[in-house]
Design a protein that fits this description.
By secondary structure, this protein is of the alpha+beta class. The protein contains 18 helices and 29 strands. The strands form four sheets. Strands 23-24-27-28-29-17-18-19-20-21-22-25-26 form a 13-stranded antiparallel beta sheet.
Length: about 600
């Protein structure tokens, strides 16, 4: 019957209006009749109201729900012309309502009497002093409430409506989106059979050709350079949005790889919720832009915010949206998502389990809408527990998979044993190292060491210039020192803090089993060897930017080793010289594990 009604509409639209004088009137009445017939056919179907129906995700969700042919869909937005355009393409009901207008919202909900209301408007972090006013109205109107929020405080705070939802035997879910609904579904699968969880990392890397609305742009720029907290080594730590650069590698399937995408820390609900739900010691969420120049530009803007030179990048949202639209032709429409869990199984083996998702053909923006379809199916079956809560654990991978496949996305789960890079590079000789040295180089996730050091400082003009370039410490005795070792799929990041003098390096394992260390543009290759319980770090070669070989005549010399003192503490002695004998840095001391 529905197909027949739609067929009449199609045939009538194909008539030439100028050839038939009465066409306009006939078309109007036939279309009105068709719509009434359609509503009669669908009268036994649940009514779903989508707020923000003309936005990127709202429109995709509306089209998806209409195609599923299970619901009567009402699209709600503030722009009448865009709503009419959407109605003309999907034949939905429409209503022009501002979600911030309490009276209009109440009147619409009273008139429509929906089964469920989906909030796709956003950005949710800017919903004002009473962020749950709209959700409260929905529940009081007798409808289920679902949103696609990824704002941490908004998602985690939805529980304040729990009593109201249970009183009306309704469900209120916040975060039915990529974060945290889909990431939690993946984490639920990955933590199975693990007796402890060391870390959970989530990365989202969309293709550049993904359309970015003003709400999406505000959500991105609003947190650049802004402080937030995440869980590291069992403790809350303050970090800043779009910092801590890393690379994300997705290679599924092999003919459309997402490899080497830059990503940085972002503030999403998983940072706090996952630590509580999975007892994870470290949780971090990363997001990235496909065009590396834009990603680094965001990082630069974040530095300006951190330094107090800018209060926020939020006022630049409209300009950034225009720039993003102009450059949308570059890059690709291939994007992806990754959830990585590191933990110990029942046999004591440390494992890394990864769930990868890759989309192409511009289907990436559909991903955040998929949990809504799963939740509506649960509501339709009545298989839900009344209450208000975040979307963690509300959908499963098995429920999501048919929807993922329907948009052409592909997923895979992989597992591998974790062997730290130093253990891989040294082989059997790693076991001959003293326990304190082995422990430091056996880091999974993050470890923090603190102790005392002595620095002899640079000598000569060339030594001082090199020390200034890389941030090596000046001459001083009894310096408090902190060393943070942070391991990930790309190697290890070492952050050394000598009483405020901070310098970083990244250590990676080459395909030949050697370890390289990168200081800014300089990449050096280390010829690790163990002698008499000491680990030595001679420099064997170096390249600028990892590409331009540095001749041995101008190669810095490294006389560095690690060992233990009489108290069994980890000790280090690093002496770096220019080829001409000037000292760049010479520091030595001891460390003990703090975290």
């Amino acid at each position: 019957m529905i197909g027949f009604v739609n067929h009449i509409n199609v045939e009538m639209h194909s008539v030439d209006a100028q050839a038939f004088p009465l066409y306009v009137s006939i078309r109007y009445y036939v279309k009105l009749l068709c719509r009434h017939l359609r509503y009669i056919v669908l009268s036994d179907r649940a009514c779903i109201v989508v707020f923000g129906a003309t936005g990127l995700f709202g429109e995709l969700l509306v089209r998806r729900l209409v195609n599923e042919q299970r619901y009567c869909v009402v699209g709600v937005a503030r722009n009448l012309s865009r709503l009419k355009s959407l109605q003309g393409e999907t034949d939905i009901s429409i209503a022009v309502v501002d979600r911030d207008d309490e009276a209009s919202v109440t009147a619409t909900l009273t008139r429509v009497k929906p089964f469920a209301v989906i909030d796709c408007a956003g950005p949710f972090q800017y919903y004002g002093a009473d962020p749950y006013r709209f959700a409260r109205q929905v529940l009081q109107a007798g409808a289920h409430y679902i949103d696609i929020a990824d704002a941490p405080s908004f998602v985690s705070g939805i529980s304040e409506l729990d009593s109201l939802a249970r009183e009306h035997s309704l469900l209120a879910i916040a975060g039915a989106s990529s974060a945290p609904a889909i990431s939690a579904a993946a984490a639920e699968r990955l933590v199975e059979s693990l007796r402890s969880v060391t870390s959970i990392e989530v990365a989202i890397v969309p293709g550049n050709r993904t359309r970015r609305t003003l709400s999406v742009m505000k959500a991105i720029l609003g947190q650049v350079g802004q402080p937030f907290q995440l869980t590291r080594d069992g403790k809350l730590q303050t970090v800043y949005g779009w910092t801590e650069l890393r690379k994300v590698n997705l290679a599924l399937p092999v003919y459309k790889p997402v490899w080497g995408r830059l990503a940085s820390l972002v503030n999403t609900p998983e940072n706090i919720l996952f630590a509580q739900r999975y007892n994870a010691m470290t949780v971090a969420v990363y997001a990235g832009l496909e065009l590396k120049g834009f990603h680094r530009l965001l990082q630069f803007g974040g530095k300006l915010v951190q330094l107090g030179l800018l209060k926020s990048l939020l006022p630049l949202a409209k300009t950034a949206r225009w720039i993003a639209s102009f450059f949308e032709r570059f890059g690709s429409d291939v994007g992806g998502m990754q959830v990585c869990v590191v933990g110990e199984d029942t046999h004591g083996q440390l494992l890394r389990r990864t769930w990868d998702l890759v989309t192409d053909d511009g289907s990436g923006p559909h991903i955040p809408t998929l949990p809504v379809s799963v939740l509506l199916e649960k509501l339709h079956r009545g298989s839900f527990k009344a209450g208000a809560r975040p979307a963690c654990g509300e959908v499963s991978l098995s429920n999501l998979q048919p929807h993922i496949e329907s948009i052409g996305a592909e997923t895979v789960i992989s597992e591998q044993e974790i062997i730290p890079i130093f253990k891989t590079a040294l082989g059997e000789s790693f076991n001959s190292l003293p326990p304190s040295v082995r422990d430091l180089h056996n880091t999974v996730g993050q470890s923090v060491y603190r102790g005392m050091a002595q620095s002899m400082g640079p000598t000569g003009l060339s030594g001082r210039l090199a020390a200034l370039m890389f941030g090596f410490p000046a001459a001083s005795d009894n310096i408090p020192v902190e060393v943070i070792v942070r391991s990930d799929s790309n190697g290890e990041l070492w952050i050394r803090n000598f009483s405020g003098s901070v310098f970083k390096s990244r250590l990676s394992l080459t395909e030949h089993g050697q370890i390289t260390e990168r200081f800014g543009p300089l990449v050096i290759c280390l010829g690790l060897n163990v002698r008499e319980g000491c680990l030595y770090f001679p420099v064997t070669s170096a390249k600028l930017f990892g590409l331009i070989p540095i001749p041995r005549l101008v190669l810095p010399k490294s006389i560095a080793h690690e060992s233990v003192d009489s108290e069994g503490r980890f000790t280090f002695d690093v002496n770096i010289l220019t080829p001409f004998g000037a000292r760049i840095a010479h520091y030595k001391g001891w460390l003990t594990r703090s975290v």
